[in-house]
Structure formats: C-alpha cells, structure tokens
Amino acid sequence: MSLRENIIKELKQKIEEDSSNIENYMNLANYYADEESYSSAIEVYEGVLKIDPNHFLALSNAGCMHYLKHSFLDAIKYFKRAKEVNPSNYISYFNLGNVYAEIDNFEAAFENYNIALQYASNKSEIYNALGTLFQDVDNFDEAIRYFNLAIEENSLNPETYVNIAVVYQKKGENNLALESLLRAWELNKNDITVLLCLANAYATVKEYIKADYFYKEVLRLDPQNYSALVCSAIVSTETCEPEEAVANLKAAIEIRPEQVNAYILLANILVEAQRYEEAMMLYKTALKLDSENPKIMLFIANTYLLMKNYDNTVKYYRKAMKLAPKDNEIKLIYLDMMNKYISNLKKENNEEYHNE
C-alpha cells in the first residue's frame, strides 16, 4: 500500500470512529484538495455540511474546488452561501470576484472585489485581482494604478511586479517592464516565473546574452522546463550557437512529444544546415500532431522547393492555401512558386525540343 493510500485509509478510519468530528472530515478533504482530487474533496466537504450546514470554511473550500474544476455556477452557489453565513468576511466576495472575472462578467467581478476591500485588512491581493481585471479588458492605465496600490500595500510580493511588467509590455514600454521584473528578481532570485519573464523580456528587446543567462537560470532550477528549453533554443540561433539550440530542442521534444513547436523549430535549424531529409521527418511528425496547420504545410513546401522536388512543393502549397485561403503571405508565396514552376517546365520542354 502506498503512502497516499495509507494516509487516506487512516483519515477515513478516524471518520468511521467518530462520524461527528468535523476536524477529521476537514483533514481528509484538505488532503484531497492538496493532491488536486477536487471531486473527492467536494464529496467530503459535503459530509461536513451535512453535520453543519453553516460551516463557513467547508462552504468556501467546496466553492474553490468547483472553481478549479471550472464548475463556475456551482462555485458561485457555494460562495454565496458562505457570504450569507459570514457577510463581513472578505474572502467570499473575493472568491465571487474571481469567478465572475473568469466568466467575463466585469461588472459583478468589480463590485465584489470592491466589497472585499471594505472588509480586508491586507488589500494587496485584491488590488492585484483588480489590476488583472482591468488588464483583461485592455484598460492598462487602471491596471497599472491598481498594481501600484498593491505594491503600496505590500512592496515585497514579486508577483505584483510581474503583473505590472506584463501591462508595460502590452503598452510597448519595455524598459519599465524590465525595471519591474528586475525588482521582482531582487526579491526572489529563484522564482522560476520571474526568471522566465525576465528572459522573455530581454529576448523581446534583443538583448540575447542577458536573455540566455536567465533561461539558463530557469534550467538550472528546473532542467525539464519546456518553455525555457524552447525559448533558449531560439536565443541560441540568434547568437549563432546552433548546436546548443539543437540539444535544447531535442530535450524539449523528449519532455513534451505532443507539442509541435519544438519539432518545427528544430526542423527549421536543420533546413538552414541543408539537412533536408531530417527536417522533413520532423515537419511531418509535427503535421501528424497538428494536421490542420497551414504553416507546417508551408514549411514542408519550402523544404521540397529547396530539394527541387517541384511536384510535392506545389502539392503542399496548395494544401496550405486550402487551409488558409485568406492568408496573403501564403497566397503570395504560392503565386510566386507557381510562376517559377511554370517557367521551369517551359525551360525543360524547350531543352527537350532542342535536344530532339
């Protein structure tokens, strides 16, 4: 029997021995919640509510489980019941705000977050949520205002600096974004989210050496971080280190063989090295994973063109056109290719005629 099974068995046994002891139920439900067994957690929280229908924590936690399951209507039901039980506890309003934000009900989310502010002693978390709410509707000035209020409440939370950096990036203010991310990094130099955001920010402004440093920091802490492997490979191609890029992309494919972008990027590098057959195998693997992707069709067509296999070139350009008939880039490439293809046929026919 595994450790997990032993823990669950022990907790269930305690409930059998004393079925009126709410603490035993809560311990089991919280254990299920921690291991992301949300349905099992809900079932046990319901057991608590049979004993005490007004148990605030069970109502709140059950609502959170439904939220994590994306059962948003059920989540709202539980959070509203919790609010009725304890109308002066900010957490119910905050949770309701989160659900309404998730289902794009801006007005209800805004209303509940503001009520939560009236009851909360530490308002940083709520200001962060309000900042994200305004960011999601592209009201960047209000988003920044709320994130700054969150910083005034708690200047030691790296998450807030990351949030405000995202808004600055959306506004095209990359220097301010970098300042915020560096502040977050100063607060926690081992936060993978901060390191990855910093690396991406430096890559955006083409400071590839700094970007490479932070990607390597992510991989030092988490060698199997897919995003860092792929992004680091892109930076390596910019800094003319194709071998490192190839190694990182191969590692990324091993970690997530179902993701197409590592296959495509690795194939692109192999095309640059004129290793067309190897590249073609990777492109076609990517195509099996995403058969309706016109860009992959285009890459395959371009590679066949470099291999001077004109029939397959035309075949895959046509497939790309069929999948994306309104894509002007594909259309222009296709027309250019067809002109070259027809010219080539004419040239070959003329040569055969003169040879005769």
Overview of this structure, please?
With 356 residues, the protein is mainly alpha-helical. It contains 20 helices and no strands. The protein has helices spanning 3-17, 22-34, 38-51, 56-68, 72-85, 90-102, 106-119, 124-136, 140-153, 158-170, 174-187, 192-204, 208-221, 226-238, 242-255, 261-272, 276-289, 294-306, 310-323, 328-355. Helix 2 (22-34) packs antiparallel against helix 3 and helix 8 packs parallel to helix 10 (158-170). The N and C termini lie far apart (84 Å). The model has no long low-confidence stretch (mean pLDDT 91).
List keywords for this structure.
mainly alpha; Serine Threonine Protein Phosphatase 5, Tetratricopeptide repeat; 20 helices; 356 residues; elongated; single chain
